[in-house]
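Supplementary material to the annual report.
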Amino acid sequence: DGGITQSPKYLFRKEGQNVTLSCEQNLNHDAMYWYRQDPGQGLRLIYYSQIVNDFQKGDIAEGYSVSREKKESFPLTVTSAQKNPTAFYLCASSIAGGVYYGYTFGSGTRLTVV
Amino acid sequence: DQQVKQNSPSLSVQEGRISILNCDYTNSMFDYFLWYKKYPAEGPTFLISISSIKDKNEDGRFTVFLNKSAKHLSLHIVPSQPGDSAVYFCAVTLGSQGNLIFGKGTKLSVKP
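Predicted assembly:
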């Protein structure tokens, strides 16, 4: 079955450490996205990529970095510069220009700073 | 400034009755509107959508209404079921190359 896989489901990070969240899709989608969800804040866009080797900042990109070396993969690194990284992170994908069809979301990664 | 507002953080409804979830937006140029449903610790799943050229779209128990002059859309669930208990997000976009902009969500609780 096609879908999006996010791993790990739960992640703990010590202050000052970088961590990388994995997102893999086998839907043959061109576009991929990272969102962050905080309680009462809805989903906020961190980064998105419409094509391999290209990505754009979203609304809250500070303290995060991404890469898009393969169509199937869009990992997100939460750097030590991100001051409040504890949140639920969601990866999504869509066909190119396919926003009207909606996004397919992964099941999320909950990151906690300890 | 929020472009998409869901002013009710929560809604409680009795099983079998109608649930009405509301969403307001600020930009009259938004041309496509979607509703997503999200259970705790899971990713959102697409529910129903509507284009700006329509004012109503129906899919089974779910109907979305769009009032462009008021910049308002609503999701009606009839009849409501306990399994409908989840957080509902409305999302909007501008053009096919745009990104989805989400509201903050409304938590629906359907009581048996």
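The longest strand of chain A covers residues 42-51.
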